[in-house]
Amino acid sequence: MSTAVRTVEPLLYTPEEAAEALRLGRSTVYELMAAGALAFVKQGRCRRIKVATLKAYVDSL
Fold it and tell me: Cβ atoms within 10 A of the Cβ of 15, count?
């Protein structure tokens, strides 16, 4: 039997995960979201940021 571990790349990040990926503070990410600089998806009370959005934001810097 194979005990290979299968990892799945995330498609959406929480604001906290996005902050870690961008090496920014959590409140800075929320400010960027409020200003419209980072688009996000809202499902109920949860906010998620697409990986492509994070890459586009970094490319625009």
Answer: 20
